[in-house]
Amino acid sequence: MTAAAAARSILTQLHEVMASRLHAQGKLNQVVDIIGEALDSEVCSIYLLREGMLELYATRGLNQSAVHVTRMGVGEGLTGTIASNVETLNLAEATAHPEFQYRPETGEEKFHSFAGVPIVRRERAIGVLTVQHVDPRRYEEVEIEALQTVAMVLAELIDNAGLVDGEDASGRDASLSEPNILSGLSLVKGLASGVAVFHQPRITIEHTVAEDTEAERQRVYLAFDRMREQIDQMAAQAEFGVGGEHEAVLETYKMFAYDEGWSRRINEAIDSGLTAEAAIERVQQRTRMRMREIDDPLLADRMHDLEDLANRLLRMVSGQVGTAASMGLREDAILIARNLGPAELLEYDRRRLKGVVLEEGSLTAHVVIVARAMGVPVVGRVANVRSLIREGDRILLDGDAARVSVRPPPSVIEAFEARFAKNKERQAVYAKLRDVEPFTKDGTRITVMMNAGLRDDIPTLNLTGADGIGLFRTEFQFLVAATMPQRERQTRLYRDILEAAGDRPVIFRTVDIGGDKTLSYMRSEYSELDENPAMGWRALRLALEREGLLKAQARSLIEAAAGKTLNVMFPLVSEPWEFDAARQVFDQQLAFLKQQKKKLPEQIRYGAMLEVPALAEVLDLIMPKLSFLSIGTNDLTQFLFAADRSNPKLAERYDWLSPSILRFIRRVVNTTAGNNVDVTVCGEMGGRRLEALALLGIGIRRLSITPAAIGPIKELVCKVDLAEIGEAMTGWLAEPPANMRQTLEDWAADRDIEFD
Ligand code: PEP
Ligand code: MG
């Protein structure tokens, strides 16, 4: 008999029992008879977890007087070992196993062979199903398979009957109900508290036994098709760098998605009488067990991908395809994900989204920039979050210390609340700086502007008291939209921003699409492109070719700024002619609107972003054309170090305080001096206190930073003597200390300047 046939004959009978009107105990009594009979075993027993102990709930073959009497701890005896390891045991001679324990009340001494499988619900062992036989023989593979399948169905029955308590039986899973502290990399500072919400929610399997096997087969077939399509699409996008889903991962995904063995095993499980969902989970359980036996870290990584994929398949099959965002957040939430794209993050309700925990992530990935702009703390690079955190767990997220406290005990909550309060106090101090102009100790006015990109950022401008918006990332409007935003909508947004800013300048950066900012509605255009999206067809390169897009944006900006000053900045300018070409598009639109007798801006100032190192070599050529130059250190550092800003493996590798970056920026400052061109740093670097200090030291006088950093940076500015830090930096850059960060920290500490 095949494993499927063996399981099917048991399942058919179990189905009847489950549908019967018997009470739970009666059902279990019948179940042990059915299984014992089918596997030709003298003994079949079910142990369930109750009050933390495994209790004999039903048996055929052992003394009935032992039912509800025999109890053992998790990890105790063979049954306890199965539960604690969530592992199958198959022994020809039970007494030969080191964990064997003899229980006289059961009368089991005459039985030699023993096999047991864990009963697993929501990845936790809630009981054990065992069979025993007089003859010393190992059970066959098909029999074990059948037992495992039956255990799945039993899990449903037991859960529905509320027969077990909520505790875990397995040691691994026990850790899932205990407090835990995970550490990672601080991506956005701040404190947050909420319940864990998985960006891709896990599916709970409601029904395990199929009514119609053919229908289940069809469901899996369709789900496989859709999943493969989705993976292919992701792979096509990944060539364009979507949210850091890496090539290796996608390769593995693809390999699994098209793995005939996997789909065949699921089909076999369906043949045995399981529903599509249960079949996927059944195969997954089996794979998990096999992988654990192999104990190879490389394979463990692969397993992680397969889990992801199996979960994806489960969602497809059960029709629950949306992310947690589409279902809406019901309470304060900490979002848990492997990685996210910026658009995906923006789908969440900003009032309820309190923090984010990522397995990947890097400081300058756009999803992190968006989170920073939203004031949502992020801890990234937390290994295995999805197996250490359960949906609904209470989480305290400490973005400052890069720690995630899962299921915290009261003492930790208390300490956290105290810090929360302190943080609020500090925020209040920063808020007081709102109207304070940032003058250095020696009386130099530093311009501190904020970065923005969404309509929701408008109130922040007034709250922070920023000197204006030094970088308005216009592509964010494109990212949050389902289709290309029409010109009228663009104009409306730009007009509202300008109105809110009043006399303060707003620098609109033309669309920087591409890299890790992909638009679903432009996907077909990216797909044929290169493998290095950050260095590919993006930003101005794309805008100059999609001239319609840039024209529409130019028109919107010019119209929105009627009667005002319009500041336009082009991203990723690599050679001066690109600036000229972009400017020409604006000139044409200006001429057209003039001809139409439309009211025009009072003046238009043009600027370029310095993000590509090559531009630094031709500053003399481009400077006469510019009113301002903005150094985008996020992209600039990735190109200077040849280190992808979205790659989590490189997230901590290079320091913004490295002599190469600081010397580079200083050279730009020196070259532009006396040219009447405003030079600003608008990358994330400028929002960090120690980095800002170094920038002041090399002559930067204008910063555009994330809103939350405005207060801290203003406070810093007021404590700095420019001559002093300038001199120190000159010395350090001439002869760099072994550790520039440490040197600056010491310098700052000596002057009572706090750093992050
Ligand atoms: C930069 O590259 O530094 C920058 C400010 O632009 P973005 O982060 O949007 O690429
Ligand atoms: Mg950039």
Question: How confident is the prediction overall: mean pLDDT?
Answer: 88
How many individual helices? 30
Q: What is the first-to-last residue Cα distance?
A: 67 Å
> What is the architecture of the largest domain at the second tier of CATH?
Alpha-Beta Barrel
Helicity range: 40-55%
User: Looking at CATH, which topology of the largest domain would you report?
Assistant: TIM Barrel
> Hetero groups bound?
phosphoenolpyruvate, magnesium ion
Number-wise, the strands total: 22
Quickly count the domains.
Answer: 4
Low-confidence segments, ≥5 residues, pLDDT <50? 167-174, 238-246
Structural class: alpha/beta
Radius of gyration: 31 Å
Side-by-side strand order of the widest sheet: 7-14-13-9-10-11-12-8
CATH superfamily of the largest domain: Phosphoenolpyruvate-binding domains
Query: Which strand-content bin applies to the residues?
Result: 15-25%
- For the report, how would you describe the main beta sheet? 8 strands, mixed
Q: For this structure, what is the CATH class of the largest domain?
A: Alpha Beta
- Gross morphology is elongated
